[in-house]
UniProtKB/TrEMBL annotation:
Organism: Caloranaerobacter azorensis DSM 13643
Annotated InterPro entries: Metallopeptidase_M50B (IPR052348), Peptidase_M50 (IPR008915), Rip2-like (IPR044537)
Lineage of producing organism: Bacteria, Bacillati, Bacillota, Tissierellia, Tissierellales
Name by which UniProt lists this protein: Zn-dependent protease (Includes SpoIVFB)
GO cellular component terms, A-Z: plasma membrane
Primary subcellular site in the record, as a coarse category: membrane
Cofactors that this protein relies on: Zn(2+)
Amino acid sequence: MNLVKTLYILPGVLLGFSLHEFAHAQTAVWLGDDTPKLQGRLSISPLVHIDIIGFLMIILAGFGWAKPVEINPYNFKKPKRDDILVSIAGPLANLFIAIFFLLLMKILYHAPNFLPYSLYETIMNIFDYTVWINIVLFVFNLIPIPPLDGSHILFDILDLKDKPFYYEFYDKGRILLFILIITDLIDKIIGPPIHMIYLALENLFF
């Protein structure tokens, strides 16, 4: 990524990572697991959630990660249901961010004369990248490959988390995910739904 594009993307990445992990943590606490609270993860501050290596990878390679929130499902009243709720909370937070910033863009779209054009264009670009990157995070994290949220949701629904297959697949999931990323196959998988959601939301608000 060039420097300008990186600067446009970083606010959306920091916000997306932070609220994604905060949503996991807060939902877990609401459902009875204080593990995220004890580990200091009940915060929207990027300093709490950002993984240094993952953050540098965003700048250098356009792909990175945050520190995952740890939970103890045995603290939940209904472990399978609550694990699904905790898992889906993160991606839904990203979708909410995308919708919120589209609303802000809608408001600014009708008031460009109140700002210098260069400032207006910069703000709109940052907001647009924030929308885009959070839709990417929403779709990407729902892929049913460990350790992504989608795998927790799928295996809880199918009641496979106690099966030996789950642990074997979990161990190999990171390797599979890495292969999909470096071969760009991941773009072919998540690209169409990302574009579809982006265009659907854009048409809804504009």
